[in-house]
Specification:
heterodimer, A: alpha/beta, Rossmann fold, 3 domains, 33% helix, B: Glucose Oxidase, domain 1, OB fold (Dihydrolipoamide Acetyltransferase, E2P), eleven-stranded mixed sheet, five-stranded antiparallel sheet, elongated
């Protein structure tokens, strides 16, 4: 498709979620792209409608009404191209309806090729149902049984470096053939399998799988141990997602004809925009999207993108699982009051079976946010263990590297170098106070040094992710101006100390010449107002044993940005020190929540 | 969005119930259209491919994978018994023999000269699908299964565990607010589906399992007891496959909570009838709720039966509050203010006013569900 970016004045984008279809309108106003209107309608993939385009048209009609712009013609088609009063120049869409993209991956070594295959699938926006590896400690017949039970949308098979041994990857193909897996949607087509392993084994793989599956061969995703080449496998996953998965869902064939760019799986699009923004601004960023059933974490560190999906960590359908995985004491350590275990357990289960309810009382809200912190924390632990340097690589070391403990398999996530932390998803975006969102992020992710906090205003990242494919300029402009709501900046010292002992001294030169200065003792937090769009000069000197980014005891001087919350100083230490003694903990939680204005004062006495 | 409230669970005196009875793989359908079936009647049958096991013959014989076909003494397609020799290496002067015995009874499906592996396939596993409800076969899906239809009283639960079963309906509690305790479980309840009132205690449930009760329908249940019953903390609400020796259906929720009067009265009026129940619950897109289906014996006057009215939330609608602080209470909508209000939690949401027998309270619309008829 040829789009002349300069000619584009109006852009329409939809995201078909499993329950809601969201539409946004982007218009060129005074030379720059801005998001102007949004609308939503229930998704219509399931009975009785069974046509996704109905929900799309409803959402688009709402945007059209709000914008005073006719977007749909009398035949129920989106009007294109745009004129002064009607239509759009580009129409694009993402989708996670019908359970998104569900995949199984297989690789020879769990921590090497299988992990690379998993990274390719996750990066493309898939939910990985299982990872089969020659060394995953399951016996072949158990693996066969597992493959047979799963009904994935597609499988990625990898293994072996180019020119290396072929036996193991062919054995994996043999396992898959023995299991004879069936696709999730519809029995009328063969299961797509992408082979991205040792190129010398292609013929044997064809012999094993060519007849019984819909086999596609792409470049090896680990051609040599030292390098991943995920692009070709990822692109093939996207193509097959369109051709097979989407084409099976009701109404999608029609929708695919309407769009000016291929429909992307929603999480794939979110990752796309985050990576692009991090690359353009040269920053390290982490994004999180917490939903009812799953939590997605995206990160870009030193240009390397990673995404993980924690399939059973979420705030409604999976809330009970968060509780089960974290355990009651871990959840309750965030609540500034005591609660009865039996009552709590029943509350959690009642939320699970009736997932659309909302907290009416402040107590319910606090409890829900406590669970959210644990869901986010667990999802981030999962992410850190996955976003690593390539494993299985022999590191060549010089004498200069001897003292640097950078090893293969080490996580890429370094909280001290994180610049931007972006929140999205119901419990984070709809928190009654923005300070609550900020605290959930800080407590769960424990950022170190200076980190800017933001939230996705109306969950626009998926739309912008696809837009970036066809109009990168519009996507980045809208991302910076309309998509993100900056909450402020968190400054946190890494290290441990004794309660009451000095952690760091600070001096903030605020706009208008006002100066705030003081010292924070270990275990304290501090709030300094700094409005949206404002900057301040921040100077601090940590005590010995504490680090603000320059090393233990080293002073820092940097710019900090304000936001809807402000500047949040955190001297609670890293790892975050929460008193174990109940009375001390309740006292500490209340003092932090009062200082950061998290909940109404009267509930924190 | 148009519906900010939760559509309620169905509790109906009579409605047409259609159940698809489909095999996991294609097979044989054993019934025909128009046939009357009982709940335990097998309507379709198939054979799942048997268990598969791979044997690394190259390793066992210490030969190259490419040589494996030459060493096989039983060819592809042969049926073999566990322990039977299927491959033997040609030894040097016949002095050192290596051989490989089948690790299971089955068929040699494939001999691979690249990996040196042999795939053994066990005998196929028969799978049967039963009718689940008594009724009439109204549709045949060729080689897949059928649809069974019946007029029935129908109660949807909110959560359940255990799969499909059936039995005569019997009251264990006399009122919807009575707790189901062990002393209420009697020996003559074996093989029956029993109806509780408010919460069923863990002890009562264990007593019911011991007594051979097939199913329990209750208002509430404690999560702690659920964990004890299952032996693990249920993380994600996908149930139905548990083998507990009983099927449990919870109609209202977790905790001490009375069964809705309407549900209790309906079940009470059907005592002595066959109840077909399924605890399977899936709370995700494509929600599955547990259910009690009580098929009607006599033909129903279809001109009056099953007129399903689509309920809308309106003044006077009966509702159940499904979240604290009024969790479990049943009342009537007394006002529907159009403007969103700020809740105590600080969130802004659309609300309604509920009248609980004279006492009125403001509740977010998202936190009520309609009691449907």
């Amino acid at each position: 498709m040829s789009i002349d970016p300069a000619q584009i004045k109006v852009i329409l984008a939809t995201d078909c979620g499993s329950t809601t279809t969201k539409a946004i309108l982007i218009q060129k106003i005074g030379g720059e792209y801005r998001q102007t209107h949004r609308g939503e309608a229930p998704t219509t993939v399931e009975a009785p409608f069974e046509d996704v385009t109905m929900g799309v048209l409803n959402a688009v009609a709402e945007v059209g009404e709000l914008a005073g712009r006719r977007l749909i013609d009398d035949h129920g088609r989106i009007i294109t191209p745009a004129t002064e009063t009607e239509g759009t120049d580009i129409y694009i869409s993402t989708s996670s309806a019908g359970g998104g993209l569900q995949m199984m991956v297989a690789g020879v070594v769990r921590k090497m090729t299988a992990e690379s295959a998993e990274r390719a699938a996750l990066g493309a926006g898939a939910i990985v149902m299982d990872v089969i590896a020659a060394n995953d400690k399951r016996l072949p017949h158990e693996q066969i049984e597992r493959i047979r039970q799963l009904r994935p949308d597609m499988i990625v098979l990898s293994g072996g470096v180019d020119g290396g041994t072929m036996t193991h990857v062919v054995e994996l193909a043999e396992l898959i053939a023995a299991a004879d897996p069936k696709p999730r949607l519809g029995a009328s087509y063969k299961l797509p399998v992408i082979y991205a392993g040792n190129k010398d084994a292609r013929e044997q793989i064809k012999n094993e799988l060519g007849a019984m599956t819909d086999l596609y061969i792409v470049d090896n995703l680990r051609p040599v141990l030292e390098r991943e080449n995920l692009g070709p496998a990822r692109e093939k996953i996207h193509d097959l997602f369109m051709e097979h998965v989407m084409a099976q869902a009701p109404g999608y064939r029609k929708l695919m004809e309407w769009t000016d760019a291929p429909i992307m799986p929603t999480p794939g699009a979110v990752g796309n925009i985050l990576k692009r923004v991090a690359d353009t601004q040269g920053i390290n960023a982490v994004g999180v999207d917490i939903g009812g059933a799953t939590t997605d974490v995206f990160s870009v560190f030193d240009g390397v993108f990673n995404r993980t999906v924690s399939a059973n960590l979420g705030m409604s359908y999976s809330i009970s699982n968060v509780f089960a995985e974290a355990g009651l004491p871990m959840v309750m350590r965030w609540a500034p009051f005591e609660m009865d275990e039996r009552d709590l357990r029943n509350r959690v289960k009642n939320k699970m079976i009736r997932p659309t309810t909302i907290p009416q009382t402040i107590e319910e809200l606090i409890f829900e946010q406590a669970i959210a912190k644990e869901a986010l924390r667990l999802a981030f632990i999962h992410h850190k263990s996955f976003a690593t340097r390539l494993k299985g690589v022999q590191q060549q070391r010089t004498i200069g590297d001897t003292f640097e403990q950078s090893a293969a398999g080490e996580t890429l996530i370094n909280m001290m170098t994180l610049n931007l932390l972006v929140a999205s998803g119901g419990v984070l975006s709809h928190a009654p106070r923005m300070s609550q969102t900020a605290m959930m992020l800080i407590d769960a992710f424990a950022p170190e040094g200076v980190t800017r906090l933001a939230k996705d205003s109306i969950f626009m990242m998926p739309h912008l992710g696809v837009l970036a494919e066809v109009h990168p300029q519009a996507a980045t402009e809208v991302f910076t101006k309309d998509c993100l709501i900056y909450l402020g900046t968190c400054v946190a010292a890494a290290g441990q100390g004794k309660e009451g002992k000095e952690c760091f001294t600070y001096r903030v030169e605020l706009p208008g010449g006002k100066v705030e200065e003081g010292a924070l003792a270990f275990g304290q937090v501090k709030f300094i107002p700094l409005g949206d769009g404002e900057e301040a000069l921040f100077k601090a000197k940590p005590a010995r044993g504490f680090d603000l980014g320059r090393g233990s005891g080293a002073a820092i001087e940097t710019t900090v940005w304000g936001g809807t919350v402000g500047l949040l100083l955190d001297a609670r230490g890293r790892p975050l020190a929460i008193p174990e003694n109940l009375d001390q903990r309740l006292r500490a939680l209340k003092s932090w929540m009062r200082e950061w204005k998290i909940y109404p004062e009267e509930r924190l006495v | 969005m148009a519906h900010t409230y939760t559509p309620g669970l169905k509790v109906t005196e009579q409605q047409l119930v259609r159940k698809s009875r489909i095999l996991p793989l294609k097979g044989n359908v054993l019934v025909r259209v128009g046939q009357l079936v009982g709940p335990d009647e097998v309507v379709a049958r198939t054979d799942l491919p048997g268990e598969a096991k791979l044997m690394n013959i190259a390793n066992l014989l210490n030969v190259e994978p490419s040589e494996v076909p030459a060493h096989m003494i039983r060819p592809e397609g042969d049926a073999v018994r566990e322990g039977e020799i299927i491959a033997r290496s040609k030894s040097f002067f016949g002095m050192f023999k290596s051989q490989a015995a089948a690790v299971m009874t089955g068929t040699i499906e494939k001999v691979n000269s690249v990996t040196g592996q042999v795939l053994l396939r066990g005998p196929s596993l028969p799978v049967e699908v039963r009718a689940y409800v008594s009724g009439k076969v109204v549709e045949i899906r060729e080689r897949e299964g059928c649809v069974v239809e019946t007029w029935a009283s129908f109660v949807q639960g909110i959560f359940g565990v255990g799969g499909e079963t059936n039995g005569e309906l019997m009251l264990a509690c006399q009122t919807p607010d009575q707790q189901l305790t062990p002393e209420l479980i009697r020996a003559d309840m074996a093989g029956k589906v029993i109806v509780g009132g408010s919460r069923v205690t863990a002890a009562a449930l264990h007593q019911a399992i011991k007594s051979g009760v097939r199913g329990v329908v209750t208002g509430g249940f404690d999560d702690k007891d659920l964990r004890d019953l299952l032996g693990y903390d249920l993380g994600v609400a996908i149930t139905g496959a548990e083998r507990l020796g009983i099927t449990l259906i919870v109609t209202e929720g977790f905790g001490d909570i009375n069964m809705a009067g309407k549900t209790f009265d309906l079940l009470k009026s059907k005592v002595g009838r066959l109840a077909c129940i399924n605890g399977a619950t899936q709370i995700r897109a494509g929600v599955i709720r547990p259910e009690v289906v009580i098929p009607m014996d006599a033909p129903v006057d279809t001109s009056v039966a099953g007129k399903e009215h689509v309920s809308a939330l309106d003044i006077g609608s009966p509702v159940r509050v499904i979240r604290m602080p009024h969790f479990g209470r049943i009342g009537v909508v007394s006002a529907l203010p159009p403007e969103p209000r700020i809740l105590e939690s600080g969130s802004k949401a659309r609300v309604l006013e509920v009248d609980f027998d004279g006492e009125r309270a403001i509740v977010p619309r998202a936190n009520v569900e309609l009691i449907e008829g």
